[in-house]
Amino acid sequence: MDINMIDLMDLEDLDMLETTRRPDRHRHRVNPFELSDEDFRYKYRFSKRFGEKIVGILREDLVHDPRGCPLSPEIQVVCALRNWARHEIQDDTAGLHSVSQPVVSRTCKKVAEILSRNSREFIKMPTTLNEQQETIRKFRSIANFPTVIGAIDCTHIRVKKVNADGGQLYINRKGFSSINVQVVCDADLKIMDIVTRWRGSVHDSRIFRECRLKQRFEAGAFSGILLGDSGYPCTPYLFTPLLNPTTPQEERYNRSHIRTRNTVERCFGLWKQRFRCLLRGMFGDIETAKKQLLHVLYYTIWPST
Q: What is the pLDDT of residues 93-109, one digit of tens each?
């Protein structure tokens, strides 16, 4: 057969082939803030007003690269918020927002880093006398316990097993790897101080003993006291329950102490219900997990949302 005829047949065969191209799904992203508030809350577990507030705070840090088809600050925030709040597979979040799974992973890490940098603006103890007196007033309204400025406790956040040297130090008394997170909250369940750097095997009392907040109390920075459980030592600025109350006065003290300190327990419960990744575990690398714990910023800036 003539060589030219063969070439012509090959060209005809090529013309018959259909070029299979991956559909360009990145060009049709829907602005989630165009949803009704009910639909927005269903998808992201927070109100649209709350999401807009977060976008407004982070917008300057989330300015996107104009090349290609970049993610807007709105999409970046809701991707991270949905992934943390619902703790779903990143592929599902990616499909909902017309991006790839690696993009969702990078976005969550980026938003976590920005929140970590900005956390001190929102997570802070009351400093002025008026702020401290208002905090003390709210705590006293619970069970008439005077001069309480915060309730303190620690909670374990499960993390992926750490295989590096020292990984066994992340295993807590319950037998799983975790980060032991110290939190101080107010009567409105708003987190005022948080420490996320300690491994799961470290005791609560050591975390407080080596934290900066203890130094501030010893320096007389606050006019009130903290309430903690019996795992902490009793000091002039940290009151703990009596282990063996024998008089009616001591029993009343314990009842008032328990009811007032219970705010931090409720804070943990609400925190973990709003962000299911804290309830079920964070399975990224350990340093990213520590930064993502500071997405508590979402909750501290607007705890009633």
A: 888 888 888 888 888 88
Say what the pTM is: 0.81
How far from the centroid of its chain's Cα atoms is residue 174's Cα? Answer: 22
| pLDDT value at residue 64 | 60
3-state secondary structure of 278: helix
What is the spatial distance between Cα 91 and Cα 95, in angstroms, rounded to a whole number?
Answer: 6
213-263 pLDDT per residue, tens: 999 999 999 999 999 999 999 999 999 999 999 999 999 999 999 999 999
SS3 271: helix
Q: What is the full DSSP assignment across 130-171?
A: HHHHHHHHHHHHHH--TTEEEEEEEEEEEBPPP-STTGGGGB
Q: What is the 3-state secondary structure (H, E, C) of 161-198?
A: CCCCCCHHHHECCCCCEEEEEEEEECCCCCEEEEEEEE
The set of residues, in sequence order, having a beta carbon less than 8 Å from that of 43 and lying 6+ positions away, is 32, 35, 82, 96
Decide if 281 contacts 170 (C-beta within 8 A): no
Biggest alpha carbon–alpha carbon distance for the chain: 112
Q: Is 223 left (phi over 0), alpha (psi -120 to 50) or beta?
A: alpha
d(CA 21, CA 267): 50
Task: Name the amino acid, one letter, at 149.
Answer: I
